[in-house]
């Protein structure tokens, strides 16, 4: 959609110019975010194993049989759990795990790990975090009671990393970074303990030396004990790194995304260097590109991965998301259809389809797509993303109830709330919401520009106007936006603020075909055309405006009246005045009609306007205007350009006037009428 340049009022009006809100639509619908694969999609990044520990020693055939039955029952439950996980029924898996835990089935730590995993994939990040925290508490309690004298609590180190992932999704980025560091420290401690254990005895050193000699390592028999220890430590570290490779990659991905969220460019680049060619790492890199608005780069990665993994249908959603962001809505829908054919009840995919329909058609079409989810039993009210988009699709309905709590959850929520305030004259509220926002996307730059222009015009602040001009120019002149509809409207907006209306028209004319039914566009285009004297085109544009609220504003009425007058339709301008209530604005419109009609030679309506003005305010200038207009009508009658009825109308306006000039003027007019057999 296009972006709305500012409007201006007629030169005679003292009212300030104002924006019509955010460019061309009610706001931005939010497509799904690309997955970061921090805890994986139920696959490689996090592997939980159910640990089976016999509860007693098998002593007889009977007890063996009982144990066998128990084992079979447990294996059945494990299989059932794996079935839930495989089908991604995380709620079902979580229910089973809670039942197992209450009934004492399975290993406590394992159950909690799986509970954290399932809660994470359900988006219940605090619940997942609490499950992992309980593992830490249980592990430390067990260590205190069973391993007194040990060097520290035996906590599964990966739990710290999983907590970091939960904190990331809870938007606690610094705490997530600290958890990743805590994981690294715990791993270092485990490694040190293992190295110390395996290098502390003479027998271990002798065994290692024997292995080296057997492997025919040169000089193995002459190695000192310290050199042997170093070799053992090196091998242990290499083995550890190999075993922990998935977790270390997850840690790097987590810190990669944290660096992006904290806008730490140095750490971001450092983590980027450690991104491998693995499937998960490449997905994470593509997600970062997407989040940084590098949509083409993200598309290239997703498409390459899709070629390598044809069966990974979710990649179609990611590619479709990128094409949505690149404004290729038809292409996005075509690619998305592949995934929807296999998963028609996917909330993420249906939401993206609705966003595409919103851009291609309208909010009603988008809402119809979301209704599919409701019909399938989805609770739309429980999904923040869909609740947000429902507000956008309905042109802001319910915005004040839905958007404020989502401002720090969904980035677009802040922008759309700003749009809502702008559309409802809440300029100061909009400014407070956006003043501290550092723009990073074209939409954010444009919205900052619109708000600053609105504030500048409201307060008469040149500083805000200048800032708006700079933001508009940044977007409109950028290589990525200069040939887009928003980019061209930004340039038009900049020139509008600079009052260079010839340039405004060049840009607006270039996108006119795409904005035919856009009231904001037609408003601005009409005024800009009028400013350059092209009143015919200005009238056509202004008459396309359908919004009744816009059409009731004095700014619109006065510009349309001026167009009517300059296009030879003074009667239409006069009817605009007759429809207005008595007010300062109606008085100003009378002045406009009187002066413009006089200037354009529409003397009958100039006389009518001056007559009303004189009765409202006995200013000598109004009498002089009326007198001149009456004479003008008389001249037009003589030239056969006006009718006798017109002359009778204007004579009725002056014949009861006490001004001494009236008698002389009436005598001349009546004499001519008698000579030409015209009854007055």
UniProtKB/TrEMBL annotation:
Gene Ontology CC, one term: intraciliary transport particle B
Membrane-spanning segments: none
Key word Coiled coil present: yes
GO molecular function terms attached to this record: intraciliary transport particle B binding
SUPFAM superfamilies, per database record: TPR-like
Gene Ontology BP annotations: intraciliary anterograde transport; intraciliary transport involved in cilium assembly
Family membership: Belongs to the IFT56 family.
Native source organism of the sequence: Rhizochromulina marina
Region (Disordered): 1-34
Subcellular location: Cell projection, Cilium
Gene3D superfamilies: Tetratricopeptide repeat domain
Keyword list, A-Z: Cell projection, Coiled coil, Repeat, TPR repeat
Protein name per its UniProtKB record: Intraflagellar transport protein 56
Keyword Zinc-finger: no
Coiled-coil stretches: 169-196
């Amino acid at each position: 959609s296009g972006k709305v340049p500012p409007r201006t009022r007629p030169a005679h009006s003292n009212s300030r110019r104002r924006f019509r809100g955010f460019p061309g639509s009610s706001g931005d619908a939010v497509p799904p975010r690309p997955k970061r694969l921090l805890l994986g999609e139920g696959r490689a990044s996090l592997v939980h194993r159910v640990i089976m520990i016999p509860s007693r020693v098998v002593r007889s055939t009977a007890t063996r049989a009982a144990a066998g039955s128990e084992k079979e029952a447990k294996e059945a439950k494990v299989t059932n759990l794996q079935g839930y996980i495989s089908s991604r029924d995380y709620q079902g898996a979580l229910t089973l795990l809670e039942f197992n835990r209450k009934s004492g089935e399975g290993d406590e730590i394992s159950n909690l790990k799986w509970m954290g995993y399932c809660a994470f994939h359900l988006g219940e990040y605090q619940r997942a975090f609490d499950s992992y925290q309980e593992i830490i508490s249980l592990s430390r309690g067990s260590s205190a009671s069973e391993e007194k004298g040990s060097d520290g609590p035996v906590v599964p180190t990966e739990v710290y990393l999983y907590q970091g992932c939960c904190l990331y999704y809870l938007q606690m980025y610094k705490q997530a970074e600290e958890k990743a560091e805590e994981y690294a420290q715990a791993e270092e401690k485990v490694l040190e303990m293992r190295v110390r254990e395996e290098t502390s005895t003479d027998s271990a050193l002798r065994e290692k030396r024997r292995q080296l000699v057997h492997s025919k390592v040169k000089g193995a028999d002459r190695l000192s004990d310290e050199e042997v220890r170093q070799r053992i430590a090196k091998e242990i570290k290499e083995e550890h790194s190999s075993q922990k490779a998935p977790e270390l990659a997850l840690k790097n991905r987590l810190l990669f995304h944290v660096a992006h969220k904290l806008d730490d460019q140095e750490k971001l680049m450092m983590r980027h260097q450690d991104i491998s060619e693995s499937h998960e790492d490449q997905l994470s890199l593509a997600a970062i590109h997407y989040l940084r608005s590098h949509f083409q780069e993200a598309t290239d990665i997703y498409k390459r991965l899709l070629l390598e993994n044809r069966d990974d249908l979710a990649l179609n959603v990611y590619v479709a998301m990128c094409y949505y962001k690149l404004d290729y809505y038809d292409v996005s829908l075509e690619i998305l259809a592949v995934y929807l054919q296999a998963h028609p009840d996917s909330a993420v995919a249906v939401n993206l389809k609705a966003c595409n329909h919103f851009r291609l058609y309208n909010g009603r079409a988008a809402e119809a797509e979301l209704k599919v989810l409701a019909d399938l039993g989805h609770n739309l009210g429980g999904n923040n993303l869909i609740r947000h988009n429902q507000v956008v699709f309905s042109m802001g309905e319910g915005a004040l109830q839905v958007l404020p709590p989502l401002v720090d959850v969904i980035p677009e929520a802040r922008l759309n709330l700003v749009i809502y305030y702008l559309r409802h004259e809440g300029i100061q509220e909009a400014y407070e919401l956006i003043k501290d926002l550092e723009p990073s996307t074209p939409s954010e730059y444009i919205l900052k520009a619109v708000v600053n222009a609105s504030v500048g015009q409201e307060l008469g602040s040149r500083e805000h106007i200048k800032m708006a001009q700079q933001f508009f120019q940044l977007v409109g002149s950028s290589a990525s936006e200069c040939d887009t509809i928003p980019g061209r409207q930004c340039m038009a907006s900049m020139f509008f603020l600079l009052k260079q209306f010839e340039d405004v028209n060049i840009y607006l004319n270039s996108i006119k075909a795409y904005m035919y039914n856009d009231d904001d566009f037609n408003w601005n285009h009409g005024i800009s055309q009028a400013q350059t004297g092209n009143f015919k085109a200005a009238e056509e544009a202004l008459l396309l405006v359908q919004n009744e609220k816009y059409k009731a504003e004095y700014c619109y009425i006065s510009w349309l009246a001026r167009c009517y007058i300059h296009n030879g339709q003074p009667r239409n301008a006069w009817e605009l005045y007759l429809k207005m209530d008595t007010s300062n604005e109606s008085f100003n419109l009378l002045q406009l009609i009187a002066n413009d009609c006089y200037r354009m030679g529409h003397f009958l309506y100039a006389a009518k306007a001056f007559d009303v003005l004189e009765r409202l305010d006995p200013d000598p200038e109004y009498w002089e205007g009326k007198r001149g207009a009456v004479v003008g009508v008389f001249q037009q009658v003589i030239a056969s350009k006006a009718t006798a009825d017109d002359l009778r109308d204007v004579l009725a306006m002056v014949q009861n006037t006490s001004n001494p000039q009236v008698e002389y003027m009436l005598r001349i007019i009546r004499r001519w009428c008698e000579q030409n057999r015209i009854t007055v």
